[in-house]
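Continuing from the previous page of notes. For each protein in this section, the sequence appears first, followed by its structure tokens. Read the first protein now.
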Amino acid sequence: MAEVSFFVARRHPRVGRIGSLLLTAYAPDEAGAPDVLVNSRHRDFKSYPDGLYLRLRVPIYCWDSGAVVELRNAVLCRRGYPSKNTRLYGPSRFALVIPERTFQLFKILEEAKLSGTMQNSESGIDPATVARKYSVAKLTFTERFLRETGYLNRVSARYGAILRQRLADGKGRMPRKLAEEALIEACNREVPCFVAELIVRKYRLKPTEMSSLIVLPELEGWQRLDAVS
């Protein structure tokens, strides 16, 4: 995966980017401006003050796995680095340990597998996995309203049943869209209209942003799950 990511990134640089390494360091004023070296080469980074310390945001790429990172004119603070992704050699020096599952190419392949055609059960789409990824628990206010009115379990059960049906014949549509439609249908079928109207009036909600007890703008959170997965 690392080698393929490296060669694909030559044509499509975004594939090589993993994210940012977040560090907290102490940089005395008399030491000069801090610098970050990756395998002895300068790496551009962003920094911002945090009291007596500095927060550093260092971009990392798939080919940085195993690379040695060194801070110049700064030392790492205690717990100021991700211990799972680093092997510490000293107060200002460590090696990067990057699992291949974090590579952008791996994520793209996983998304392609999840969003591919779903004509039958052999498609490899697991409804339970999709339901966990796009769960009611990730919609803060929607879950609160359903729990407050006593309809959370009924809507969740109906949502799971409808989602399984839709995934079985998804016609190549994205699981997220199928999940959104399934949840909206489940909530409208299970929650009486007068209950939803009471909640809208009680919390002075905008009716245009509600579908039964579902807060529609919260579904954007599911969209962000696709962006980071």
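Done with the first. The second protein uses the same format. Note its length before scrolling.
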Amino acid sequence: MGKLVNISVKVPKELKEQMKQVDVNWSEYLRSVIEAKVREELAKKAASRLEEIRRGAAKVQTGEIVKWLREDRARSSR
């Protein structure tokens, strides 16, 4: 992990008192939850971008794909 920086989170006083009663490393817990959310959002963004590219790409007929595969196999066997 790279250099760590501080962020602040405000919670109600009652919740802070309840947090003290639970044996959890809150910093590590929040760090892991934030990392998971970032990965999730980046994956959504990548999927959205991929869908945009897919919509913009021309449709390729099955016969054309088969032709490409055969040509590639022929080149590979030489």
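What the second structure shows: The chain has one domain: 13-76. The mean pLDDT is 93. We return to this in next week's lecture.
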